[in-house]
Amino acid sequence: MGHFTNILRYAKPYKKYALGHIIANVFYALFGTLSFIALKPMLDVIFDKEKVVPKAIPEYTGLDNIKDFAADYLNYQMDAFTGGDKAKALVFVIGLIILMFILKNIAGYLANYFLVFLRNGVIRDIRNKVYKKTVDLPLSFFSEQRKGDIIARVTGDVNDLQYSFLPVLEIIIREPLTILFTIIAMLYISTQLTLFVFIFIPIMSFIISRIGKSLKRKSGRVQKEQGIFLSTLEETLTGLRIIKGFNAEKIFNDRFQESTNRFYNFSNKLLNRKNLASPTSEVLGIFMISGILWYGGNLILSGDPGTSLDGSTFLVYLGLSYQILTPAKAITRGVYNIKKGGAAAERIQEILDTPNPIKDRPNAIEKTGFDKNIEFKNISFKYDDEYVLKDFSLTIPKGETVALVGQSGSGKSTIANLITRFYHVNQGEILIDGKNINDLTTSSLRQQLGIVTQDAILFNDSIANNLKLGKQNATENDIIEALEIANAWEFVKDLPEGIETNIGDAGNKLSGGQKQRLSIARAVLKSPPIMILDEATSALDTESERVVQVALENMMKNRTSIVIAHRLSTIQNADNIVVLSKGEIVEQGKHSELITKNGTYKKLVEMQSLG
């Protein structure tokens, strides 16, 4: 129930709908009970039972005689309306029954009307919160998670809440109140018979709880498996070119089918267990009704005046006792749904409760500009067990271009991940203008940075909207100017809709060089004082590299740049080249100085020349 309580917290903004829902359900339960009680005078007329009609309007004297007061008042009003005519009396009570059922259904509609706003509002807020938390979490979280599983939680698990947990809101008030009002009416009709009925309630509860015990575990397996086949689907769509190129369709098809087969088996077990709820409660209900027929029939046949039970009253009692079955079945389904929804709520709560180490500190500073330098001060960092940077120190004055070179795994890209606060350093500190970046707000820090990565990450949108990610208020002239600096305007101007052209999923309507130039234009439009270029040309062919390199040089003018380089020919004009090996600086200086040293850098240059 803890997860159910957590979900209910999201209902607070919709208190007015919840209140309307509760009030409407109170009337639904009340009119539902009264509609059965109203059957008694009709049966009395049909069975030609003589009634004592009061001479004056009965007076209410308290709860002790409410039963007699209600009967006398109804008899008085019926006699006043019909003048003792039994045909008119029958029409009167039938009209009364119709009125009760109409009022009951109006109340039921209003309850559902309010529930729609409550339920859909809660689902929207949960989905939004899960998405926001997903975006806020650090990259390290996603390196350990399947994308498909995250998608399954935001979509499938939230939908499970909608169809498992939240329908329970409907029965929290309505069904218990229906049972309560019905039992009160039954107690007034016959205390003995009602106490006999109570024998069945703990038996029914025990059997139902035993059936539903493993439902949460089975549901958790279903939802986990859904995450697995969604991950396979996501990987397939992302890597379809490779899958086809390596004739690996069968491998991925088999993997997907294995997962969906497990999902099929788990779902069958889950739904078959869930489907036991209705027939079980139905059978138990029939046993209860049979017991009432036997015990109540004996009470009537005994002729004991103390039972105050006659034929018409007993039929009304049977109707009331049968009415308990419907809400009892609904509550049973609700209990099953809570157990099933508990697994979905737990998976959603896992994301919401995941601690975020990359959070702004209290009183974090808003950084509004870049004035002096960037300083890496005795930095050590590890992703898992082994350090990829060891006691790394480097100062980058404003306006200089620093290139980081070295073999794969030497720690170059890690430096970009640390200065952008995608990860936190384990030891040491990174300072911008003498301020530790951990003391700055994350948004203001990243506002000072422009990033161009090896993979040109673009979105299924227009060129203009892709570029405006970092500057929402950019004008059309601003966008064109950024495209010109990035050498991209030459091809954008020839597109059918210019900057409003949609570039497709991940920009797949463009070539690699074109995508990379748009990434550069996006960074240029943001116009940050510090640029981080993470192997921005390594994935390009020679011709595209030349064009992109010119674009990069245009972009780096009058800016501080950190260039992570794979192709050393692109960084020969850097103010400082830092050579890394196994997370440590082994050489640094200008290109000509490092060549003269005849050390690691020269070997790297010679290897690329030979290549």
TrEMBL record:
Database matches in InterPro entries: AAA+_ATPase, ABC1_TM_dom, ABC1_TM_sf, ABC_transporter-like_ATP-bd, ABC_transporter-like_CS, P-loop_NTPase, Type_1_exporter
Gene3D superfamilies the UniProt entry points to: ABC transporter type 1, transmembrane domain, P-loop containing nucleotide triphosphate hydrolases
Keyword Ubl conjugation: no
Main location: membrane
Compartment annotation: Cell membrane
ABC transporter domain boundaries: 374-607
Keywords for this protein: ATP-binding, Membrane, Nucleotide-binding, Transmembrane, Transmembrane helix
GO MF term list: ABC-type oligopeptide transporter activity; ATP binding; ATP hydrolysis activity
GO cellular component terms given for this protein: plasma membrane
Stretches assigned to the ABC transmembrane type-1 domain: 22-340
Membrane topology: Multi-pass membrane protein
Keyword Transmembrane: yes
Transmembrane feature ranges: 17-39, 89-118
Protein name: Antibiotic ABC transporter ATP-binding protein
Organism listed in the record: Algibacter marinivivus
Organismal lineage: Bacteria, Pseudomonadati, Bacteroidota, Flavobacteriia, Flavobacteriales
